[in-house]
Amino acid sequence: MKNLTLLMLLLFLFGCGGKDAPRAPESSILVFPLKDSECTTGVSLSGSTSEVEFQWQASDFTETYQIRVTNLVTNVSQNMSTSATSIKLPLEKGAPYSWFISSKNTNVTETATSEIWRFYNAGFQTTYAPFPAEIISPKSGASVLRSANNEVELNWSGADVDNDIISYEVYFSINNPPETLVFSPFANDTDVNVTVAADTVYYWSIKTLDSEGNTSDSGVYQFKSL
C-alpha cells in the first residue's frame, strides 16, 4: 500500500511540473509616426493642437501596451494604457516629441520596451529645429574609467527633419550647467575626447545648429570619472 501511495504522489508531482511557466512579453515594433520625421496626418483640434494616431505592431505574450509620449521642449509626458495597437493623443502643433511602447502582462513582473522614436508634429513653420542631441555615452549618472591619457570619450547622435545640421557645440565642465565650450565639431562628428581628473563629477551638454539658424539643446548630463 505504501508503494502505491508513493507512486501516485510521484505521478502527481511530475504531472504538475509539466506546465509551462508564464512567458514575459516581447518588445513591440513601432510603426507610426515615423522616426525622425514630420507627422502631417494629425487632425486639427484647435489653432495650437492636433490629434495624432500612434500605431505599433502587436507583440507576443502581451496583454496591454503603455505608450509614453514626451514633448521634448517642455519635457511633459502623456502616459496611456490600451490593449489595442493604436491610440490617438492630442499634441501641440509644431513641437518635437519622443515616444515608445512598454509591453506588459499580468502573469509576470517583467516588461519589454520598444525603441524610442522622435518626430515633429506638423505646425505652421516651414523649417524645423534639429531634434535635441541624443546622448549615447557616458550615460547620465554613470561612473567611467579614464583612459591611459586621462581622457573620456563623449558620444552622441543627432537628427533633423530638414537634414540640415551643420555643427554641434559641446559644453563641458565641473559646473552645472556647463558653460565652457570645449569643442565645435561638424555635422558628421559626433564624438570628442575630454581630459578628466580622478574621482570628479563632470557635466556636459550638446547644442545642435542647422543651416537655417535653428538650434536645440540636449539638456545637461553628468558622469563621474574614476
Summary, kept brief:
This protein is mainly beta and about 230 residues long.
Question: Can you characterise this structure?
Answer:
- This is Fibronectin type-III domain-containing protein.
- It is built from one helix and 19 strands.
- With 226 residues, the protein is mainly beta.
- It folds into two domains: 30-121, Immunoglobulins (Immunoglobulin-like, Sandwich), CATH 2.60.40.10; 134-225, Sandwich (Immunoglobulin-like).
- The strands form four sheets. Strands 2, 5, 6, 8, 9 and 10 form a six-stranded mixed sheet that branches. Strands 12, 14, 15, 17, 18 and 19 form a six-stranded mixed sheet that branches.
- The protein is flat.
Keywords:
226 residues; 1 helix; 19 strands; 6-stranded mixed sheet; Immunoglobulin-like; mainly beta
Count of domains:
2
H/E series: HEEEEEEEEEEEEEEEEEEE
Number of helices: 1
CATH class value of the largest domain: Mainly Beta
CATH topology title of the largest domain: Immunoglobulin-like
Indicate the low-confidence ranges by residue numbers: none
Which superfamily, in CATH terms, is the homologous superfamily of the largest domain?
Immunoglobulins
The CATH level-2 architecture of the largest domain is identified as Sandwich
Morphology: flat
- State the end-to-end CA separation: 69 Å
Helix percent band: under 10%
Organism: Sediminicola luteus
Protein name: Fibronectin type-III domain-containing protein
